[in-house]
Amino acid sequence: MASPSLPVTLDDVIAAQDLLSGVVRPTPLEYSRALSERVGADVYLKCENLQRAGSFKIRGAYTRIARLSEEEKARGIVAASAGNHAQGVALAAQLLGIDSTVFMPIGAPIPKLLATRAYGAHVEQVGTTVDEALVAAKEMAASTGAILIHPFDHADIVAGQGTCGLEILDQCPDVKTIVTSAGGGGLLAGISTAVRALRPQARIVGVQAEGAAAYPASLAAGHPLALTTMTTMADGIAVGRPGDVPFALVSRYVDDVVTVTDEDRSAALLVLLERHKMVVEPAGGASVAALLTGKVDLKPPIVAILSGGNIDPMLLLRVIEHGLVSAGRFLRLAVRTGDQPGELARLLAEIAEQRANIVDVAHSRQNPRLSFGEVEVQLSVETRGPDHSAALIGALRSQGYPLTLLSGTP
Amino acid sequence: MASPSLPVTLDDVIAAQDLLSGVVRPTPLEYSRALSERVGADVYLKCENLQRAGSFKIRGAYTRIARLSEEEKARGIVAASAGNHAQGVALAAQLLGIDSTVFMPIGAPIPKLLATRAYGAHVEQVGTTVDEALVAAKEMAASTGAILIHPFDHADIVAGQGTCGLEILDQCPDVKTIVTSAGGGGLLAGISTAVRALRPQARIVGVQAEGAAAYPASLAAGHPLALTTMTTMADGIAVGRPGDVPFALVSRYVDDVVTVTDEDRSAALLVLLERHKMVVEPAGGASVAALLTGKVDLKPPIVAILSGGNIDPMLLLRVIEHGLVSAGRFLRLAVRTGDQPGELARLLAEIAEQRANIVDVAHSRQNPRLSFGEVEVQLSVETRGPDHSAALIGALRSQGYPLTLLSGTP
């Protein structure tokens, strides 16, 4: 089945596994009671969020960097990244005793910047996007001779990421479906190379962010196509064009590439936080989001890869709120009341009567939409779920309150 | 060494372990590279946040309920709790096929209420505090004959919680220090009973919330003393009076009970989230907070118990913010500027120049403190840490901006 023209083979992945032995952590595979009940089929989670440096990236980065010649190693390495690749490259370089420089965009999450620096990389902040940082990295490579470590478009990177697939087969030998997030496609290509060779019948599904999904159109066209725009909070998989190396493997081996929205991912992250007590980043929860939204045929046992856990706490705050809203558990309402003493107390008592928890309240007389003698009360309310939210809104309306839903589904 | 008058012995804990085999999950003990580096001694985390129903409570609840007589079981059980005990009791009753009723205060976190119901308990919401819920539970026990399951003050509960200690000795045979949170004292008493008998030299330290610490004064007095007031966000360990059964054991076996603040705990939770990708509740992170604040003698290897992971996402939002503030990574500022076009842009450019990330901005002309021709800009800003925060504030002041720090340490 394997074609001689393909850039990575099972043997390459096995060789990478030997190289990585004692370097990467064989991450746990955890049975998920909560997800299995929800989707009606056995689901396991491959916890690459617990990998060293917080994501699978160290697998590929170490494989690539370790294989540089002594002469190349002496020239040092350079990379561009807003996050996981930066940390993976910095840690790999540190372990191998090589100088590294990482260009990160201005505005990159501060914790990722500090972590990259803590692994000993020299960090330069330049531009506002990864693409601009990449230009600077290429310039440095050209002028100093440092070796550019691309995040996904290299055979050694793909072979390294593929070792995650070998671990899965070891931990769940009869796996029937593997679901993983995909950006440039390095992880998806590596896993599918290993798994297709050893379990020809297993289904392999990639998941991309709806606002940044270059693979579906590229697969349809038969060659990598660049996106013209990208919008997603899943910065880990916001890649505008599939890599040539991973594309060749993905188009040969992968059964399907599906997309999920930011809301789908927020809801999945919330399930992982609440039920599994586990932190994943938005890209890292894409696989679970695809399962929860019915985008994947459920042939069990299913392994969903949690590809990374490096989420900026500031983003985590927004994701939790998003997740509560999309689970129907959080409402923001604007309610108009009369401007008489006791009106606000009456409104809050009505909400308490409905057993919803008030999170915050703002009271304003200065909105131009208000008539004289009216005030607007903006409320954030936590509810038990969509039915409870609908009941609360119905109760307030039946009491005669004019009401606007600012966020949340009624 | 053991006195015949003590209510629980090592044999009782071993018997509970037999009873719980196949019921509770032997939770993982994870080496913490991040904490070990920070405190300079080997630290392991005992992950009871990954226990069934999200905390250690199932250990005691199941032990207690399983040992009821058939006649008692037929009468059903009743409990009062705002959280973990509710879920532990409900799950234990479900596993044993027994009717359960749990009284929860109005305003209890909705996710905990839903989880308790999902385990099959009949949930009644009454009063606004756990004490009020307990009154209702006792009334039901008196009128219907249902058996009241106290959260900590019973020998079977303490014996059940003690099984966590046996697991620790199994997983880390040479443990020198065990640190665990304490509320009523059931877990601390159970663990110390098991550990003191098998490792007489190991140090055992309890950690309470500063605003709700009944043990230190009670231990000094030699008998349980009730607190008159309590203030802490760590609802899981907000208990106003030590139980008689655990107190007898804790006063005999435990080396020290220390306290930590809400800020200490928020900072610890943030470390666990960011570095271990792990969710714990405020009470659950008290042990790590005690280590990070130097409250515990560091005789390694140290085992810190993460007692539970059931945190309401709404509370998690506040904890993350708190944690960022107390780590010096988040500032809220009010800055006065002139009310001319371009002034806001100039201020934001200055902050960007300092490489701090702006989280949100509010612009107001209506503050009575402002003179005519002034506006106030309220800013939330993420920084790299205390030094960066101080540098940012210094830079703004040197540009002549009058500035008030609303939260965060400069």
Q: Strands of the biggest beta sheet of chain A: in what spatial order?
A: 1-2-10-7-8-9
Give the oligomeric state: homodimer
Count every beta strand of chain A, where a strand is a DSSP E run of 2 or more residues: 14
- Pair with the biggest interface: A-B, 36 and 36 residues
Order of helices and strands of chain A: HEHEHHEHEHEHEHEHEHHEHHEHEHEEHE
In one word, what is the shape of chain A? globular
Instruction: Quote the distance from N terminus to C terminus of chain A.
Output: 52 Å
Gyration radius of chain A, rounded: 24 Å
The class by helix and strand makeup of chain A works out as alpha/beta
- Residue share in helices of chain A? 40-55%
Largest sheet of chain A: 6 strands, mixed
What fraction strand of chain A?
A: 15-25%
Low-confidence stretches of chain A: none
Question: What is the number of helices of chain A?
Answer: 16
Characterise this structure:
The structure is a homodimer of 410-residue chains. By secondary structure, chain A is of the alpha/beta class. Chain A is built from 16 helices and 14 strands. The first copy, chain A, has helices at residues 10-20, 33-39, 57-66, 70-75, 84-96, 110-118, 130-144, 155-171, 186-198, 215-221, 244-253, 262-276, 286-292, 313-326, 343-353, 386-398, and strands at 29-31, 43-47, 77-80, 100-104, 122-125, 147-148, 177-181, 203-209, 256-260, 302-306, 330-338, 357-364, 374-382, 403-407. In chain A, strands 1-2-10-7-8-9 form a six-stranded mixed β-sheet, sandwiched between helices. Chain A has a four-stranded parallel β-sheet with strand order 5-4-3-6, sandwiched between helices. A four-stranded antiparallel β-sheet of chain A has the order 12-13-11-14. Chains A and B meet through helix 6, helix 12 and helix 14 of A and helix 6, helix 12 and helix 14 of B.
